[in-house]
Design goal:
Elements lengths: L24 E4 L2 E4 L5 H21 L8 H16 L3 H4 L7 H18 L8 H8 L4 H17 L6 H5 L3
Antiparallel strand pairs: 1-2
Amino acid sequence: MTPGATTPPEPLLVTGLPALRPKTKVRWLGLWLDSRLKFDAHVKYWAGKAGAVAAHLRGLSKTVRGVPPAQAAAVARACVSEVALYGAEVWRKPRKPQAQYLATVDKSLKLAARAVVPAYRTTQVAALYRESGVLPAALEVARRQERWQLRLAAAPAHSPCYAFGWL
């Protein structure tokens, strides 16, 4: 796995064993990395899981008999947002927003917002976010990045953050 690799390396051949082929994506410390060391696989994986949770929440939220909107909003914020943005502190670059990552995550957050608020499909997305209490992906990721920077700035002098060069 190298940053500039475009063609996959040849399989490793050992006598008496089947050929070992390199994987297209690898999980390392909870983050999924592809062969170019990008976070595409990670964002797709966790956004898919968050979309599944949002779909289950939508199944529970009915207009007549279902989860009350306040509890559905709490579940959406606690479960869907947290799952969709797992590792966002690592893949977000503050000065260069990744539009494709944010768009992928935003799909699951929109589904969660629609599960909270019983609204028509033509309802504006900004109104859905406002009424459901779920933040858009860009705002939520920026909030998480600021929180991470404050956490690093408040680290004591003997923290391993200094050894890694984060501070």
